[in-house]
Specification:
alpha+beta
């Protein structure tokens, strides 16, 4: 891996100095023709249908790019698709430095001016795509009780209208009409669910980052809307009404809706990262799962490990949580079971090997030993 990074850095230096061998760039000249189209897209996960897009000049981006091999795939919300005149498409992940990665491990190191152009376009798209990250106190003033609002699901792009009816620690909300209820249920694949989802709340001319679940419960208030009860919308720092806890799943989705997952994850300890793993496993959230591992292409980031499709997975830590402020590696044992028929079945033990590069970096799952 060190040799790969050394080679990547050398390729970038050669580009900067204008000394890159023509042989390295020649493979990409066909992609720089004027008849090819480059489309930049920002979306919350690789499979999200809701995306903000912009067309760019493929020639100005790819001319002089150098191909290197780097097997690590970056976690990202930004993608570039090159479509040729013959409709052949090549998709790349855009990393934080503005370089391009293919799923097979190949990387394109762009010229400095092309990287700057790509990063500027990416930032503009991200500002349009995500919502404002506001505290619950601020959001509560923007959507006071009885305020009407629009909910946009960040994965599917489906939209429905709703109204805040109550809620002191978060917003208790109901769909406005039967049609809105049907759209909300479609977001949850036709079945009501407690699963958290990243959403944008539009109200009073503002777009706010938020999280919702999809389970009718509690008090009602809007007649003939086909929704018996209300559902909950959380914002940054909002809490549950029962125990007054700040729910990790909701806060993760709020950060996702704001496009601030990286900053959120850097504040999480290894135990919260493991809790987030089980949330991603339960929700089937591939993007969230990738964000937790040392490499987006990690083989354990692409599978459900604990049989969530067969029941509800419960987990617990078998040792007391230790102070980890200055540590960069820790192995944490976890017990799991599947809840079926009200009983805890298929009990198992695993060890999560957690690593980070320095005390200032994000904890990540290096591997899971079962």
């Amino acid at each position: 891996m060190q040799m790969v990074k050394l080679w990547t850095g050398l390729a970038a230096l050669l580009l900067l100095l204008g000394l890159a061998d023509d042989d390295y760039a020649s493979a990409w000249q066909a992609k720089t023709r004027a008849d090819s189209v480059a489309e930049l897209a920002v979306k919350a996960s690789p499979h999200a249908t809701y995306a903000s897009k912009q067309t760019l000049s493929s020639a100005s981006l790819l001319t002089g790019a150098v191909e290197v091999y780097d097997s690590s795939l970056p976690s990202t919300d930004t993608y570039l698709t090159i479509t040729s005149k013959s409709e052949e498409q090549t998709m790349y992940r855009v990393d934080p430095d503005g370089n391009l990665h293919q799923e097979d491990g190949k990387e394109l190191v762009l010229k400095p001016e092309a990287r700057l152009k790509l990063l500027a376009a990416s930032q503009e798209l991200r500002s349009r795509h995500y919502g404002e990250l506001l505290s619950w106190e601020e959001a509560s003033h923007i959507i006071p009780r009885k305020a009407k609002l629009k909910v946009i699901d960040l994965e599917s792009g489906l939209v429905f209208n709703a109204q805040r009816r109550a809620g002191s620690s978060h917003a208790d909300v109901q769909p406005l009409t039967k049609s809105d209820t049907e759209i909300m249920k479609q977001i949850y694949n036709g079945e009501w669910s407690w699963h958290r989802r990243a959403i944008i709340v539009e109200a009073n001319g503002r777009k706010l980052a938020a999280s919702m679940h999809g389970m009718p419960h509690g008090g009602d208030g809007i007649p003939d809307n086909g929704f018996s009860g209300h559902f909950c919308i959380h914002f940054q720092g909002s809490a549950t009404h029962g125990k007054g806890n700040i729910d990790l799943g909701h806060q993760f989705m709020v950060a996702k809706a704001a496009g601030t997952l990286d900053a959120f994850k850097r504040r999480m300890d290894p135990y919260d990262m493991i809790n987030a793993f089980f949330l991603a496993n339960e929700y089937g959230d591939s993007q969230l799962m990738e964000e937790l591992f040392s490499n987006a292409g990690h083989e354990q980031a692409s599978m459900q490990h604990f049989g969530a499709e067969r029941g509800t997975v419960r987990h617990r830590f078998t040792e007391s949580e230790a102070p980890l402020e200055n540590m960069v590696a820790v192995d944490i044992p976890v017990e799991t079971c599947l809840i079926r028929g009200g009983a805890c079945r298929d009990q198992a033990k695993s060890v999560f090997h957690m690593r980070r590069l320095s005390p200032a970096e994000q904890w990540r799952i290096d591997r899971i030993q079962k």
